[in-house]
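Tutorial sheet, problem 5. The two components below are modelled jointly, 314 residues in total.
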Amino acid sequence: MTYDVVFVVASALAILSALGVVLSANPFHSALSLIGNLVSLAAMYLLLQSDFVAAAQVIVYAGAVMIMFLFVIAYLGGRAEEPVRSRPWYQTVGAIIAAVAIVAEVGFAVEEQAFGNGASVSEAFGAPQLIGASFLGRYVLTFEATSVLLLIAAVGGVTLAARRPAPREEGAIGAFEIQRPVTSISLQADVVDAETRFDVVRTGPARDEDGEG
Amino acid sequence: MHVGVAWFLGVSAVLFGIGLYGVFTRRSPIILLLSVEIMLNASNLALISAARYSGQQAGQVFALVVMAVAASEVGVGLGLVVAMARRRADLDVDSLTGLRN
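Model answer (structure tokens):
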């Protein structure tokens, strides 16, 4: 009985928060709704005796990934808002048709099937020990491929988002603010001094007025 | 009412449909990525309910792999969004038509 109640509440929350993600105009609200969706799904994973996956869902998704989303949304500020333009009507109609089609398809497929009660599993099903044994045993190749994928994605994300050096004037400082050699500052100051008459503070190596150094 | 695997699969299908609707209708690349996350989570729910139904660990292992793939996708996708913003491009996926011709 408790099981049914938890299922109904969690699935209702998951569906409502997913609708909130898709329908809300503010991207910040969308991201927060997605956190609610992920937590509801974690509750459903617990109902399915997948303790480790539920924990990973909360820590990895609702924690790390969503923080990344919120950072980017905050970085973009007002530009993250949806551009207001009238979208073609067939786009919305096609979206509704596709969404209803996938739900109907799964609905019919599930309806056809006479599901039993499912396999009876021990208490340890879904425990971290067994997941770890699977990852390092039978699925070790998957595990390694996933780690390589994560590495590539991390490098790719940094490469894509990195600031590129813009075309710039001769002698300007590059993208990463490398400190200019002190002598060149004093040389420039020598040139500027004649016209501006500002005090020139020499910070570089001392040079004689005659140029003999 | 007995909540069996069919109910979980139904919820998973509904979530997938909602995510699909979002991908089709929204223009902002951030909302698109969020909608794709919903779809990936829906498939995860189906995988995990199938794992519980069949009593095998493989579904959970695969769900964890899907999570890692989703994290990679978010990293690259948000990198693209930031690059678009840097280049002063309109944050609108319909305006990215440079490869059309």
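Marking note: Residues 51-76 of chain A form the longest helix (26 residues). Full credit if you identified this.
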